[in-house]
Amino acid sequence: MRLFFSGIRKLYRRPATFVTFGLLVGLIVLILILAGATANSTVGNGNGGGQSSRAAIKDLLTFPGAYDRMLSVVVSIGGLFGMVYGAAIAGSEWSWGTLKSAVARGESRVRYMLLTYASIGLLIAIGIVVAFVVALVTAVISANLAGISTSGLNDASTLSDLPERLLKGWVAVMEETALGFAIATLARSQLAGIGAGIAFYFGESFASLLLPNIVKFMPFSVANAALSSGSSGLGSGGQAIAALPADQALVLVFVWLIGCLVVVSLFADRAEITG
Amino acid sequence: MSGTSGTSGARMDGAGVSGTGVSGTSGARGTDGLALATRGLSKSYGSRRALNGLDLSVPTGVVYGFLGPNGAGKTTTMRVLTGLIHADGGTVEVLGKPFRRGDRHRLFEVGALVESPTFYPYLSARANLRELAASGAHVPSKRIEELLDLVGLCDRASDKVQGYSMGMKQRLGIAAALLSDPKLLLLDEPANGLDPAGIVAMRDTLRALASQGKTVFVSSHLLAEIQVMADVVGIIAAGKLVREGQLKELLSMQGVVKVRVRPNLVDGAIATLAPFARAERLTETDREEGWLSVHLATDRAEQVNQTLAGAGIYASGLESGTDLEMLFLELTGGQRPSSSEGEFVGLGSPNGAEDGGAPAGKGTAA
Fold this sequence. Notes:
The structure holds 2 protein chains of 2 kinds. Chain A is mainly alpha-helical. Chain A has one domain (2-270). Helix content of chain A is 80%, strand content 2%. In chain A, strands 1-2 form a two-stranded antiparallel ribbon. Chain A is elongated. Chain B contains 11 helices and 15 strands. The model of chain B is unreliable at 1-9, 14-30 and 335-366 (pLDDT under 50). Chain B folds into 2 domains: 31-246, Rossmann fold; 255-322 and 335-365, Alpha-Beta Plaits (2-Layer Sandwich), CATH 3.30.70. In chain B, the strands form 3 sheets. In chain B, strands 6-7-8-3-9-10 form a 6-stranded mixed sheet, with helices on both faces. A 5-stranded antiparallel sheet of chain B has the order 12-13-11-14-15, covered by helices on one side. Chain B has a 4-stranded antiparallel sheet with strand order 2-1-4-5, covered by helices on one side. Classes of the chains: A mainly alpha, B alpha/beta. At the A-B interface, helix 1 and helix 5 of A face strand 6 and helix 2 of B.
């Protein structure tokens, strides 16, 4: 457990933790405020595009559906940030040589890496909850700006499902984080891990246009599908793609997550630590 | 040798002997009295053979100097000994027990500084030691303060490591290696970046640890540093051990008497001194300056002087000493650096002087 708590202390003091969280929250707030502030002006355009935008914004900010939309926004954007964060943490253990110091003290490489990932998981759980709350508050403000009713805010059925939905969202982000963690471990580098992770994210997004039936099984798509309730969902780039049913997607999320951690474990255990 | 005895190490800020130091434990007891042993250790990187049947025998309670030219396999050996890489063949025994893949717990009694010290740059020295202590063997929290004091970083312990100089990081690296009060300490170039006072204090600390029965294995290219610090040395070249033994014994076979005569008398002096040494052991170091080197026991310097005087050749300078550098170069097939020609071969090397190390030899100057 001391290694787990040590991991949390290290992450808590790490500037990247607050920078990543700040960017995530800032981006969400910016998107929602802009949506609320521009909702009425899009109506004024008087064209079909404006009306559909108004409908989309209304759909985004109307409660109780907004609970799901906010969670999707947090998980979708948070997944990308989680992957970058995971890559940064895992990569720095190799490029800073701090894994080397622990191994030379007799620490298990696999235990060290997995507990580092576990400590990331705790911070991400806190981050998701806080970001979700911020998103909700911002959504209420934006709804008021747009003149949309917030009467569904106290919908009992939605509120009772919220913990489970948040848990699924956390698992989805953790899967994407595990992907970044694994890529950076293989690359043994922060920058290479982050770069490859972002390339993977956008690569999956572009590939979904050409190979939707394959991409729906890919990590970012299944993470988004695990939270969606319909037959289509948001791809990694935010576009609508054919998606797996949520239950099936959730299973695949676990498969990707465990697969990434197995890769991390095998590589860390067998790697020659030099430099 | 400037080692301290007892249980305290000298503070590495050069501020004198610390009262906290490294708490003593009884020395490690290894199989056959060895704290560290490798047999037939081999390791290749692709087609390049880094270790080629390395046999090391490091007795308990000594400072062991591990020497070798660049690329000889020192760092590879250190990596194998700390479990960072795995050998292709051969065996390693640490503190009397086999150290194989999966025997990581053996390292709980080992402290190591391999290559450059590594830390989280955004954490302070204190926090870095605390987080490192969370891995491996358990470390009492007061130990961290003791070590910060030992390495002279108490005043800067709350500063982020990213602002540290190389020497400060090196001090912190040594503190990190000592975290678990190890019975066996593996240090790779520990003097790197240290100022002269830091080098002296580091040396005293390592000597103090050895006097407590701990074993200190120091890999270095600073021959002068090893010569004043080590009890036992092992010299490797091309991944193989070429010589190992008590430093005093090795050096006693490596005496140098240096004589300066007038340049026009050099040939006569060579002829006169030829009976003292085999032909290849009598060399002109610098004809223009008239320096000759005779390799023989240093206590025969007086005889050399007497013989020259008997032949009517009067020495204007006579120096004697023992030289690890000479031994090292001989064993590793290296060439003497041109910068040292014309200088006294047994006392002081350019490296030692630059790094604030003590003189390389223990000879006397006449």
